[in-house]
């Protein structure tokens, strides 16, 4: 969150950015996405971030998380995951990835041009690549946590870390797109079951 705001031209210290991010994360489990979005923007505004800058930063954060989640999923497909999945599940992320890559810099330039002096700087592909690399790295500890959680259930777990690393972000991306489900609950878990059913005998 701090790095996203910094890329947009607004500097916030680590403590304030972390507090805003962690507290607002709990709001996404309230039904409807309005409270989550409004809570983040409101808290950021209290830390000196302009409302428009906070809203654009929030949208950028969500799109980067979504794009890198799908990118990690696609990247690990050759390592024991893709051969057991239905083709639609493999192909579905590709147009989403392409759309984000093409449209995101254009949308940010448009937002900066329409909101001069409101804490929004146009971002080119260079900074976006750096931010994306950071988000890719964040999926590794998240995938490792999911893998260790499965291993802790007390029964033999047949999947390797690489397979879980692909399944976890793909499931998160499915839940992210389900705006009707608080925090993606149900949809995210259902996608995880679908992905794992081809690898684990039921």
User: What's the overall geometry?
Assistant: globular
Instruction: Flag low-confidence runs.
Output: none
Strand content: under 5%
Rg from C-alpha positions?
Answer: 18 Å
Structural class given helices, strands, pairing? mainly alpha
- In helices, the fraction of residues equals 55-70%
Rounded mean pLDDT score: 80
- Along the chain, the helix and strand elements come as HHHHHHHHH
How would a textbook summarize the main sheet? Answer: none
In total, the number of strands is: 0
Q: Count of helices?
A: 9
Oligomer: single chain
Question: Which key features would you list for this structure?
Answer:
202 residues, mainly alpha, 9 helices, 68% helix, 0% strand, globular
Q: Nutshell version of this structure?
A:
With 202 residues, the protein is mostly helical.
